[in-house]
Structure formats: structure tokens, C-alpha cells
Amino acid sequence: MGHGKKQIRESLERLTRVNFPNSIVPGEVRDLLEYVSQNLGCDVRYKEEVNHAIHPDVHNTNHNKETTKIEGQITQPNPLVMLSFSLERVILDMRSRYSGLTFFTTPGYRLEELHPSEPDLMRKVGSSVAAYFESNRVEKREEDDEE
Questions:
Q1: What is the Cα–Cα distance from 27 to 81, expressed in whole angstroms?
Q2: Pairing between β-strand 95-103 and β-strand 17-24 as defined by DSSP bridges
Q3: In terms of pTM, does the model score above 0.85?
Q4: Hey, which of 29, 69, 84, 125 would disulfide with 49, CB 3.0 to 4.6 Å?
């Protein structure tokens, strides 16, 4: 019996994390979320936390800004399902990039305690994210072939 509970918990952990095949910058996050919204017919709302840094320079002031956090909510209209998420930040090339999306769930809940439409929407979002990266890889390949 204990083994089955472990499999369910692991499956919930897998379900709530959508890894990207490659990391993306904040501008690409917007494109990805627009794709998910259009593909699934869901409302996607998100906010970005931006940090600003001002550095003195010999000739002028250097101002840098960096998106350090992205969180949001995906709402499916019928049946009504709302999922909150955050994007996983990694630092590459001295700037923020994002490597995946994590859905928030109530701590301690097991998969079978969620309303069935929640895991279903998580799976749909995961499939939509995979389709986004696949279509962009195909488009990029076609652009490379034209050069």
C-alpha cells in the first residue's frame, strides 16, 4: 500500500512541473503563454517582477533591468478550472532565462484529492508547451534552410 502512495505522489510532482526543452528569455515567455492561451482557449494572466540596476559610468549612467520572477494563472472556462503557476528562473549568459513552469497545488494534497479537471488541464498545458517548442523548432529549421 505504501508503494502505491509513493507512485501517486511522484506522479503529482511530475504533473505539476512542465520542463522546457531549452530555456527561454522573458520575451519568449510571452509568446509561449499566448500560444497556450490560443491553443487551449484559456485566459492566461501573469505578472513579471523586474529589478532595475543603475551603474555609474565615466560618460553616462548605465541602467539595466532584468525580469526576475514570472507568476500567473491559467483559467479554463468550461468546466471552470483555475491553475496558478510560476516559471523556473535560471541564470545563463548573465541574464534571466526560464526553464520550466510549475503549477501550485495545496501542500500535502495527493493527486486523487484534486478535482479531476485540474490534472486534466495540467496535462493539456504540458502538451501545449511541448507543441509550442516543437513548432518553433520546425520554424527555426525552415528559416535556417532558407539561408
A1: 26
A2: antiparallel
A3: no
A4: 69
Residue 139: pLDDT band with limits 50, 70, 90 = low
How far is the C-alpha of 68 from the C-alpha of 57, rounded, in Å?
24
Q: Which long-range contacts (CB under 8 A, 24 or more apart) does 41-46 make?
A: 41/76, 41/77, 42/74, 42/75, 42/76, 42/77, 42/121, 43/74, 43/75, 43/77, 44/72, 44/73, 44/74, 44/75, 45/72, 45/73, 45/75, 46/70, 46/71, 46/72, 46/73
What is the reported pLDDT for 72? 97
Inform me whether the pLDDT recorded for 141 exceeds 60: no
Is residue 143 over pLDDT 50? no
Contact partners, residue 147, CB within 8 Å, separation at least 6: none
Angle between helices 2-15 and 117-146 (to 10 degrees): 50
Nearest-angstrom CA–CA distance, 12 and 6 = 10
- How far is the CA of 63 from the CAs of 55, 59, 60, 96, 101, in angstroms? 6, 13, 10, 16, 29
Confidence of residue 147 (pLDDT cuts 50, 70, 90): very low
